[in-house]
């Protein structure tokens, strides 16, 4: 920054000139950030069109800026800023397309499987004991001879 922050900000923002200012590259990054936050966080899109749109706009703007402007005559920073902005836009595109969207789809399918399993499990749990269910004390052995004799006696008609 030559001449202090205030004079540089005044030159870049208030006396904006497309051919020599870096402020529009900053605004391009803000535009890209807001569009992507709106698309993926607020609207919860699961498609790549928003990142493709912002990458195309960013790439076209940076290419036009480099061709038309005088940034290369301003030293090394004139080369570095447009190149880094261009590379970052494409890295974000690659990262979203090959890492984030597939991972979110996998997480969503896991969530749906777990939710489906919990819904089915709720139907399989035994409810409250009904009249038809009974409890045998541990002293009585089910199917023993005593049980069958008592059953036969109780089943005999009373005269």
From TrEMBL:
InterPro entries: MENTAL, STARD3. It is found in: Late endosome membrane. Residues 1-144 form the MENTAL domain. Keywords: Membrane, Transmembrane, Transmembrane helix. The chain crosses the membrane at residues 20-41, 48-70, 76-96. PROSITE patterns: MENTAL (PS51439). The keyword NAD does not apply. Its main location: membrane. Residues 129-159 are annotated as: Disordered. One of its GO terms (cellular component) is lysosomal membrane. It holds the Pfam family MENTAL. One of its GO terms (biological process) is vesicle tethering to endoplasmic reticulum. The keyword Membrane applies. It is a multi-pass membrane protein. GO terms for molecular function: cholesterol binding. Belongs to the STARD3 family. PANTHER family: STARD3 N-TERMINAL-LIKE PROTEIN, STEROIDOGENIC ACUTE REGULATORY PROTEIN-LIKE. This is STR3N protein. It comes from Ceyx cyanopectus.
């Amino acid at each position: 920054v030559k001449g202090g922050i205030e004079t540089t900000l005044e030159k870049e923002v208030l006396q904006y000139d497309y051919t020599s200012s870096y402020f529009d590259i900053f605004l391009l990054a803000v535009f890209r950030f807001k569009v992507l936050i709106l698309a993926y966080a607020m609207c919860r899109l699961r498609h790549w069109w928003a990142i493709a749109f912002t990458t195309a706009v960013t790439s076209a703007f940076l290419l036009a800026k480099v061709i038309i402007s005088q940034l290369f005559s301003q030293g090394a920073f004139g080369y570095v800023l447009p190149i880094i902005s261009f590379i970052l836009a494409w890295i974000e595109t690659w990262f979203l397309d090959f890492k984030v969207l597939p991972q979110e789809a996998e997480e969503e399918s896991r969530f749906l499987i777990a939710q489906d399993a919990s819904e089915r499990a709720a139907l399989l749990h035994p409810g409250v004991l009904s009249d038809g269910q009974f409890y045998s004390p541990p002293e009585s052995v089910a199917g023993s001879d005593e049980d069958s004799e008592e059953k036969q006696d109780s089943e005999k008609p009373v005269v």
